[in-house]
Amino acid sequence: MSKILVGLKRVVDYNVRVRVKPDGTGVVTDGVKMSINPFDEIALEEALRIKEKGGASEVIVASIGPADTQQQLRTGLAMGADRAILVQSDSPLEPLAAARIFLKLIEKEAPQIVLLGKQGIDDDNNQTGQMLAALWNRPQATFASKVELEGGKAKVTREVDAGLETIEVDLPAVLTTDLRLNEPRYVKLPDIMKAKKKPLDTLALADLGVDTANQFKTLKYEPPAARSKGIMVQDVSELVAALKQKGLV
Amino acid sequence: MAKILVVAEHSGGKLNPSTAKCVACASKIEGAEIDVAVLAADAAAVATQAAAIAGVKRVLKVENAANAEPLAAVLAPQVAALAANYTHVFGPSTTFGKDLMPRVAALLGVGQLSDVMAVESAHRFRRPVYAGNAVITVEAPQDKKLVLTVRTASFQPAPEGGNAAIEAAGVNAELPTHTRFVGRSAAATGRPDLQTAARVVSGGRALGSAENFKIIYSLADKLGAGVGASRAAVDAGYAANDLQVGQTGKIIAPELYMAIGISGAIQHLTGIKDARTIVAINKDAEAPIFEVADIGLVGDLFSILPELEKALG
Ligand SMILES: Cc1cc2nc3c(=O)[nH]c(=O)nc-3n(C[C@H](O)[C@H](O)[C@H](O)COP(=O)(O)OP(=O)(O)OC[C@H]3O[C@@H](n4cnc5c(N)ncnc54)[C@H](O)[C@@H]3O)c2cc1C
Ligand SMILES: Nc1ncnc2c1ncn2[C@@H]1O[C@H](COP(=O)(O)O)[C@@H](O)[C@H]1O
Fold first, then answer.
1. Rounded to an integer, what distance in angstroms lies between the CA atom of residue B51 and that of residue B20?
2. Which of A30, A184, A229, B82 counts the highest number of beta carbons within 10 A?
3. Which residues have a Cβ under 8 Å from the Cβ of B162 and sit 6 or more positions away?
4. Interface test with A, best of B129, B185, B273 (most A CBs within 10 A)
5. What distances in angstroms separate CA A21 from CA A224, B93, B188, one per listed residue?
6. By C-alpha distance, which of A95, A215, A221 is closest to B137?
7. CA B261 to CA B57: how far, in whole Å?
8. Which of A218, A221, A236 minimises the CB distance to B304?
């Protein structure tokens, strides 16, 4: 039976108000809450539902990141993944490098489906799944809001600018998740205990033999331009007057 | 010298305005030579529109029945083949470009810059990260092709007035059959398109139901505005998914944005940072939306909106 490989990226929690370091070398991450990228939680939830319906035999979660990423992988195991793989990398990698690493894992695990998030909410790149599909020479179904499996194929409804689009892809394939694909389950305490016993393998980046050199150089980080202070109006007639003054109505 | 290929976005024989915005971005690179590629089953009409964009030198038509629908897996090998003659490949940061361009980049063995908002030079750009909480300046290597997507909200479309040569381009690429188009459902609303509308009225969770959301449509129609929504409103089924504004929805830059019953979560705000004037109507005076609003009104939307419509005549 078939395996599903799920990418879990460790990112600054979505509730954190991210701030740029005063020296412009990055954003403040010291003491900041880290979590599974929200889109990846959705990817894992989808994988678990497919398995629970008999569509897969094993769900493997994988992450590329520092040793602390074990926390997010353990959470993934507690949600219900069968085992975890950490590719340890202390410096952040670009999506192309991440895709090359996922391709290595695919060669080893031969999954039928690879489920990634549509974007990491840290760098907002929205690239890795598409790059992986290209390198693997397999289909991609990005921004999925519905996935139906049937006999070696997946029918995927995608959220696109014009509305919803449905495509059919042959498996194996890479799917990336949009927000409305599902609502991830909560982790229960006994599951956290059980997850401690599930296998979590750590691989050294250097052992994979892939080119992970970064191509882009970030010269500086800056806070976004601030909007100028607005006004408060007391009622509808003041609102209309203010709009008129700006020539907007 | 920069030779830039812009991948045209189109549907139903019409060029999407995102293409002229990509050309505008490309034009910021000094001395750039800009071509536009139109991949379609029948590219004639779209090619004519692309040729009229000021600043475009040539329009390359790549016609193939397999290009009838914009499937990234089918288009990417063709764009990658065309890229051989270029230093840069640009696409819009719309769902079309987001789907396609990273696949092109990977086929070329290079990385991609997403959501470019400003050009500093042919190899130096600015882009937002962390939902727009930071802006980074990034340098790309000179010795590699550069694939990037253009944050369309950051650029005005390049004007018309061009007169580019239109050429048929043959590409030598093997096209996969593992990906098939099934269908598309788009609500034809007759309202201005959210991504290009000069005015947008957006509703949030506060609307409470799809039925109540109609008062957003009604105000929008009065103003000739497009309609947007917060994620919460879309998740709850009050509004269609393609109306979501924000980090993971649409990034827009209208003249007027009215946020009605929307709290102003950072993920929402990142979608409206470039709006000229933001109006917020919210019953909670402490709502974060007021921190970015140019005009704020505290109160119950269900009494304010009918009154506002009446006042607008
Ligand atoms: C990974 C991720 C991506 C996301 N991407 C997006 C995105 O792209 N876009 C997006 O919008 N969100 C996004 N979100 C969700 C975001 O964090 C917020 O949850 C969402 O924007 C809240 O929507 P809201 O403002 O409509 O709802 P709420 O936050 O619940 O706000 C409702 C507001 O309505 C006001 N209100 C209530 N009743 C009335 C009334 N009668 N009259 C006037 N005001 C009233 C309340 O005071 C409140 O401020 C994302 C979240 C995550 C985790
Ligand atoms: N370092 C990583 N570890 C695990 N998954 C990743 C990593 N980088 C990217 N991904 C996956 O790729 C998706 C898209 O990421 P990005 O292209 O960076 O926006 C994420 O949602 C993850 O599923």
1. 10
2. B82
3. B51, B52, B53, B54, B55, B56
4. B129
5. 13, 27, 46
6. A221
7. 47
8. A236
In this predicted complex, what is the ipTM?
0.96
Going by the DSSP 8-state scheme, the letter that residue B50 receives in this structure is H
Interchain proximity A231–B290, CB inside 8 Å: no
Contacts of A54 (CB under 8 A, 6+ apart): none
Mean per-residue pLDDT over chain A, rounded = 96
Q: Which residue has the tokens 């490989």?
A: A5
- Judged by average pLDDT, the poorest of A97-111, A214-228, B183-197 is B183-197
Q: Which residue is it, tokens 């000069």?
A: B198
Residue recorded with tokens 């449905």: A166
How far is Cα B258 from Cα A176, in angstroms, rounded to an integer?
32
Please list the helix, strand and coil fractions of chain B in percent, rounded to the nearest 5, in that order.
30, 30, 35
Q: How far is CA A119 from the centre of its chain?
A: 5
pLDDT band at B190 (very low <50, low <70, confident <90, very high): confident
Arithmetic mean of pLDDT, A142-164: 96
Amino acid of residue B146: L
Q: Is the peptide bond before A172 cis (omega within 30 degrees of 0)?
A: yes
Output the pLDDT for position B189: 76
Q: Please report where in the chains the tokens 């094993």 appear, as a residue.
A: A58
Residue B302 beta carbon below 6 angstroms from any ligand 1 atom? yes
pTM of the model: 0.96
Residues 8-67 of A with CB under 8 A from B: 12, 14, 17-20, 27
Model confidence at B188: pLDDT above 80: no
